[in-house]
Amino acid sequence: MENILIVFIITITLSTIFNVFLKRFDIPTVIGYILSGLAIASLFHFEEKSKEMLSHLAEFGIVFLMFTIGLEFSVKHLKSMKKEVFVYGGLQVILLGLLFTFLSAWILDLESKAAMVVGFALSLSSTAIVLKFLNENNAMHSSYGRVTLGILLFQDLAVIPILLMISFFTSETDSISILLLETLFSAMFVFFIIFIGGKYTIEYFFNWISSTNSEEIFLVTVLLVVVSSSTLAYYFGFSYSLGAFLAGMTLAETKYRYRIESSLIPFRDILLGVFFVTIGMQINWYSFVEYGDMIALLFMGILLIKGLFIYTMLHFFIPNRTAIKTSFALFQVGEFSLAIFALANGHGIIDDTLNQIMIITIVLSMILTPFILKNIRSIANIFSKEPELLRDRALIAGTYNDHIIICGYGPVGKKLAKIFREKKLLYIILDNNIILVDKAIEDGEEAIFLANAGQRVVLEHFNVNQSIAIIVTIENPIQMQLICENIISFGTHINTIVKVVNSAEKELIESIGINYVLNGKEIVADRLAQEALACKLIVK
User: 407 and 356 in one domain?
Assistant: First the structure.
């Protein structure tokens, strides 16, 4: 216990010093954590047991990250992303895994089993770094953020069969068919307990907990749900993060999702920091010096091949600029690959030398990633110029009073703008779709701005407090909820009207605190009934 506490104290001290210094140069905290781990591994000698304990603690950083991602994605939302997850993600992992398998066998002269493990491990990207960036920069629901998230979700699911593949390769007693049946049974059991069982009990359970009016008890209960779900999944042979993700998706269907997310963010970020420290601790400088040329070639080759492949695959499905951004967001190799190599090394599939070379290569790619993500827009401009048609004025200086804010320039938003224009009312339109904004400006709409109403600073800029009303016509349910939450944060005095498409969305938006929620289906039904009655009267 004493050794573990010493490791923990030194870790926190070095991380704080590094990050305070690096933050002055606007360098991401991820780099500070990795450097802290590297310093600890290089300067101090700790028992393997202490490092292992710290590693287990750090793993829960990924667990909490995946839980909060699950909170963002209900089953309904995941269904709406089936193309991003199962088509883009499936093609990326399978095709790129096979390509890297071939290259590993050819260039590294590996036997087929080792080549497959290495190949599919290299097809994975860093969920921790990429999703942390997307969350912090409100880019999760951008065009490239959505595609990136979909592919990362499939990659996380793909970790399970990759780990099972190692079990198949090293199994001496069980046949593959028995292992597959056991895995299928375990998956069904975990899914039933966490998702199906939780769906019908979890909200009642949290209602009971909330009746205590104790934030402390509520937070402890959330931690209990996360840790229990993760442990259950791990016990049946899956990753901790998969159980956490399922638990998050279960709670995403309840009214407590936003309260839970805000309560967990500090725990998530702290444990993610510890996770990155343990990554730094895995680097052996002697291997870096001895195999530096090979590591450099692998580093450049993997990033180049991976980036080009993802771009080539995606540009057939999505806009060119979005494909470029996504390829730069996913060109690194991720933390789950480290776990795969560790297991493969433990089972003798790959040797110690190759394992250490791969660890250093992966960590270097992860260190580079925050700098790329931070400048992804500028990098994308090098390859595909962003249209410059007037929308750079999106956040021009100006004050607005007694105006109407329209969020979303879809069919409903266009109709509203036309009505307000004819009545000579002051209105502005906010939309973050580049194509829609450019087209509207070309058509003569001067009151439209390229801006994300889901960001509080945008609503502040357009003076939402002094508006007559704000009308939300966004089709994306997640973005709609985010906008409504930001509006409510300014106070309940703002006249807010939200268009939804069904009663479930209406109940959810009303639970946030919005009073004027219009169900499009009900309005159409009422109008049809009125028209039918009018026709009947005319006939008479």
Answer: no
**314 and 179 both lie in a single domain:** yes
| CA dist 87 → 95, 122, 330 (Å) | 12, 19, 16
C-alpha distances (whole Å) from 142 to each of 147, 281, 393, 470 are 9, 34, 19, 22
Residues 379 and 395 in one domain: no
**Last-in-domain residue among 325, 348, 383:** 383
Do 364 and 450 belong to one domain? no
Q: Which of 325, 357, 383 is the last residue of a domain?
A: 383
Q: How many domains does the chain have?
A: 2
3-state SS record for 253-320: CCCCHHHHHHHHHHHHHHHHHHHHHHHHHCCCHHHHHHCHHHHHHHHHHHHHHHHHHHHHHHCCCCCH
For residue 444, what is the domain's CATH number? Answer: 3.40.50.720
Q: In this predicted structure, what is the pLDDT of residue 72?
A: 65
486-518 tens-digit pLDDT: 888 888 788 888 988 888 888 888 888 887 888
Average pLDDT over the chain, rounded to an integer: 79
Do 83 and 187 belong together in one domain? yes
Residues forming beta bridges with residue 407, ordered by sequence position: 430, 472
Q: Which has the closest alpha carbon to 142: 268, 312, 329, 371?
A: 329
For residue 428, the cross-strand partners are 405
Q: Which domain holds residue 311?
A: 2-383
Local confidence band at 71 (pLDDT 50, 70, 90 cut-offs): confident
Q: Which two tokens stand for residue 14?
A: 């070095």
Do 32 and 126 lie in one domain? The reply is: yes
Measure Cα distances from 132 to 63, 68, 279, 341, 500 in Å. 13, 11, 16, 23, 30
Q: Give pTM, 2 decimals.
A: 0.64
- pLDDT higher at 26 or 107: 107
Mean pLDDT of 373-386: 82
DSSP 349: S
For residue 145, the model assigns a pLDDT of 83
Query: Both 434 and 373 in a single domain?
Result: no
**pLDDT (tens digit per residue) in 124-146:** 998 878 887 887 776 776 778 88
Residue located via tokens 């290495």? 118
The residue behind tokens 């590996």 is 110
Confidence of residue 58 (pLDDT cuts 50, 70, 90): low
Task: Write down the residue that tokens 């109403």 correspond to.
Answer: 453
Which amino acid is it at 10?
I
